[in-house]
Specification:
The complex is a heterodimer of chains A (280) and B (241). With 280 residues, chain A is mostly helical. Chain A is built from 10 helices and no strands. Chain A is globular, with a radius of gyration of 23 Å. In chain B, helix 3 packs across helix 4 (129-142).
Chain lengths: 280, 241
């Protein structure tokens, strides 16, 4: 899960050099690349790790060898333990995303599209945003106890803020020249929103969604570490008690894979929804 | 080009139009009549208020004093194409038209006129500058406007593309005969397209010249008219090319 800075470059037709801009991201020519496949060093690290474990340099109580982790992963999958934990955690994410995306999109549109919304909504949301939302865990536990509510809420907050910010600024940044052209073409205010403001906000919104998803997974992990009686976090915590470092690593790998999976889904979505940005 | 004689009711009538940004008036009591079907080029140095005038006629600015009458429907093509990048070319052409008029067939009719029918399904960002500007023109024409406003639509194009756009415009005017106001800073462009050239200076119409039909083929007459217009613009002899 990377919370790295993602940049969107929504291009507009008023960009005078649009026609020349057909080159994709810069790629190192094949001939200048070293003749080593990119996974080679990764494989080397795994081999060193396995070797360190085999020679007792690395105690399995600190970190289990890759072979054991793989075997444990297989065992947990086969006996259904991983599956049921996965189901619980995914359920939490899904519910959190549902609430978070709904809140982020509706608040972002409201404050982006209406002056009143901007004047009344934006200040409190911006103020709340400065709070590290993961720091709210103690309060959430006091308010909502230790069951599902604080976890789902934490995830929802994780995704809502980046989404709100990107939609708010995306709508605000719609090209005034396009809006003016739409006015001359006889668009009503509602048509201008539908045909101009929303499509120009979409690239920003999708970047915000990707960042939000990263935050959502992070929130889930934190929430499950603090307290859980089921799910991936519970599995990991439980394993810690018994020094089962192999199970801990399996849990972490699954978190990573899930994060990668949702990110891929949004990127696919991006490519489909923003196909107008590239050549036909 | 043969044009109908100016009809009694002008398509555009402006009386004592004044528009100021802050203290300085951009338009200072401007009077202007444009006959239906006339193609008028509006020349002026930058800051002379020519774009302001066009925006007033397009209904994009109503904070003025004076009276302004525009008879019939208005279409505008801007300096930049201003196509919606997320709509295919043909959808851009019929954008904002009433349901039933916003058909692909109507879009194609307009695109054929600017010779771009084969690009109907492209995304605007894949077009060249000249192509995008022609689509923008098609969009303005698809509305079958009574009044066509062009705000330096060829300013960003290279000389060759401009020349072919001029020819295209002359052909389209002969066919559609909309009342046209073309804002430009290029005297030769004005003489190539318009049958009347206005020079805007100090917020008023400073020069008003009819361009006789055959001027384009008569170098001497053309040169005389060109010199007069440059004088009106206040271009000094050593500034001329």
């Amino acid at each position: 899960m990377s919370a790295s800075v993602l940049t969107a470059s929504p291009r507009t037709i008023s960009d005078p050099q649009v026609g020349d801009d057909v080159a994709g991201p810069s790629v190192i020519p094949r001939s200048r690349r070293p003749a080593v496949p990119r996974w080679a060093s990764l494989l080397g690290v795994l081999a060193l790790w396995q070797l360190a474990s085999a020679t007792k340099l690395l105690s399995p109580d600190l970190l289990a060898p890759p072979s054991t982790i793989a075997a444990t992963g297989w065992r947990l999958t086969a006996n259904g333990e991983l599956g049921s934990a996965l189901l619980v955690s995914s359920g939490r994410i899904a519910l959190g995303l549902l609430f978070g995306v709904t809140a982020g999109v509706s608040l972002g549109l409201l404050s982006g599209l209406s002056r009143w919304g901007d004047a009344l909504l934006d200040p409190p949301v911006q103020a709340l945003r400065t709070l590290p939302h993961l720091g709210l865990v103690p309060l959430f536990i006091l308010w909502f106890g230790i069951d599902e509510t604080p976890k789902v809420l934490l995830i929802a907050m994780g995704v809502a803020f980046p989404l709100y910010l990107s939609i708010h600024s995306g709508v605000r940044q719609s090209d005034p020249k396009l809006l003016e052209a739409a006015r001359v073409l006889g668009f009503t205010a509602r048509q201008r929103v539908w045909h101009v403001s929303l499509p120009s906000a979409l690239p920003h919104a999708l970047v915000g969604l990707r960042q939000g998803l990263g935050m959502a997974w992070l929130s889930l992990i934190v929430a499950e570490q603090v307290n859980a009686s089921s799910g991936l976090g519970f599995m990991i915590n439980n394993a810690r008690e018994f020094l089962q470092t192999d199970v801990v690593v399996v849990g972490l790998v699954v978190y990573a894979v899930l994060g990668l999976l949702t990110d891929t889904v949004v990127r696919k979505l991006e490519r489909r929804a923003l196909s107008w940005q590239g050549p036909l | 080009m043969n044009r109908t004689a100016p009809s009694p009711a002008p398509a555009i009538a402006l009386r004592a139009i004044t528009k100021s940004y802050g203290q300085a008036p951009v338009l200072a009591g401007l009077d202007l009549d444009i006959a239906a079907g006339q193609v008028v080029a509006l020349l002026g140095r930058s800051g002379s208020g020519k774009s302001t005038l066009l925006r007033l006629l397009a209904g994009l600015d109503d904070a003025i004093t004076g009276s302004l009458t525009v008879n019939g429907s208005v279409s505008v093509a801007f300096q930049e194409p201003r196509l919606l990048p997320w709509r295919r070319v043909w959808r851009n052409v019929v954008l904002g038209l009433d349901r039933g008029d916003d058909t692909r067939a109507n879009a194609l009719t307009a695109l054929v006129q600017v010779e771009l029918a084969d690009l109907a399904d492209r995304w605007p960002l894949t077009l060249s500058g000249g192509q995008a500007q022609r689509v923008s023109l098609a969009r303005a024409l698809a509305r079958r406007p009574d009044v066509l406003l062009l705000d330096e639509p060829f300013g960003a194009l290279d000389a060759l593309t401009r020349a072919s756009m001029h020819a295209l415009l002359r052909r389209l005017f002969a066919e559609h005969r909309p009342t046209t106001l073309l804002v430009t800073h290029d005297v030769d462009e004005a003489l190539a397209i318009a049958d009347r050239v206005l020079v805007l200076r100090d917020g008023r119409v400073h020069g008003d010249h009819l361009v006789p039909a055959l001027t384009a083929h008569d170098p001497t007459r053309r040169q005389i008219l060109r010199t007069t217009i440059l004088d009106d613009l206040g271009v000094t002899p050593d500034e001329r090319d």
